[in-house]
């Protein structure tokens, strides 16, 4: 963006809660089921049905509030009325002027603090599919509705307009996602819509100016879309102002394939939702004891998990830039416990972190389900030199494929017997004898040739030799 | 203080049409009278001076009514969809929507 303009960004994140059932009825909260199979009189809006609040959903919402350092308060539910068939009853139950969680904050990994205005509970809507050429509402002849998602519990997390760059917005969503996953509240799957982001964007020329007129961007389905949409929207607003026009407060739709935002509706068309207190629900008033009980169930948050790994690296002599990236990857994927367990069992921190960030991360789902003991046993074999790096990676892939097992057995099945010291020395000696010129250059100080000899030995042993053991033998012979 | 409501028979017929309710002439008379009584009662309440009264969230002084997160048996889909005026692909088929989702 042009340097003479400043951005102001606030984000609204909708997060589906990982409950067994919906917010106000006992229908399963399940993504991807056959349409209209998870429905009952309540979530179909049939007359006479009454909502009853799901305790687990409340506790997950409180967990989010706790993780975001919010003030958790007495709250009420309202009806938000609107005419749109994604709610069969023509209103959505949402917390309005008395939300459960207020006044929190989220610290980005670089220390920048983003204020959290509120994190309130509401129910999700059904899913509409628009029939017609465009697949969007405009031009559709009719629409089809699946109410499986109708009534699924949501928490909407509204940030203060504290972010100033697309990078901060991306970092915020990434960190928030990690917090939601770590708190057990959400699976954080943006691709399945269990986490959805809207961005409020405005521009101004100076930090002393008041905020400009903002636009709200919807349909941001990935962290990448978020950054692109904010950049596009900022440029659009700047161009408007510089050409003497003004920004109109409106809601805009991000078109990922076209790479631009399009107006949906302006403030003048804003809905009058006719909010009123939901007469079928009583206030939700968490007392201090309940709030503390929920806080006690909260696991370690991502920031704490990162610093736990960094302190392990510090104990082992300090962290490199690359290792700090590995730490972020491992924590983001929820694999940091594997590293901690391996280090506790005596595996080197660098090796445990690298294997987890590079290899285990390629199938994080499988890694999360792996028995940590198997993983630690494998890394121990590699560290002791019983398996080469290549062999260890192959055994890990097999562990994932089998869903577990004994690494030593798998290594034997694959023929990965560690070479005896004698046969290794013999193979190295053969390689040296076959290449006397290279050997004398190596002895003369050309260290690059260590790789040449290691390659020969690997080839002769079909990869079964341990690279470190070969290097050690070469150094021993050079004297 | 707001004017007392003057509910007409035409108002009730209009609201009924919006709600897709088909009322007979006798029902229109009946409900016009009943709804007018309800609105009159609301007007009585609106005439009270409530300046110093804390808003009430619910008529009963009850809080934290919760249910365990346990699944129920859902309705049979064929039965559910049989209630709808139009169905396609196991989904409710609804007329063209004017405007985007709120």
Explained architecture:
The complex is a heterodimer of chains A (479) and B (102). Chain A is an alpha+beta fold. Chain A has 3 domains: 6-297, no CATH class; 302-413; 421-478, Arc Repressor Mutant, subunit A (Orthogonal Bundle), CATH 1.10.10. Chain A has 16 helices and 15 strands. A 9-stranded mixed β-sheet of chain A has the order 3-6-7-10-1-11-12-13-14. Chain A has a 3-stranded antiparallel β-sheet with strand order 5-4-15, with no helix packed on it. In chain A, helix 5 packs parallel to helix 7, helix 7 packs antiparallel against helix 8 and helix 15 (449-460) packs across helix 16 (467-478). The model of chain A has no long low-confidence stretch (mean pLDDT 91). Chain B is mostly helical. Chain B has 3 helices and 3 strands, in the order ααβαββ. A two-stranded antiparallel ribbon of chain B has the order 2-3. In chain B, a hairpin with a 2-residue loop joins strand 2 and strand 3 (91-95). In chain B, helix 1 packs across helix 2 (25-46). The longest helix of chain B is centred in the middle third of the chain and has 22 residues, at 25-46. The two termini of chain B are 34 Å apart. Chains A and B meet through strand 2, helix 1, strand 8 and strand 9 of A and strand 1, helix 3 and strand 3 of B. Strand 2 (53-54) of chain A pairs parallel with strand 1 of chain B, so a sheet runs across the interface.
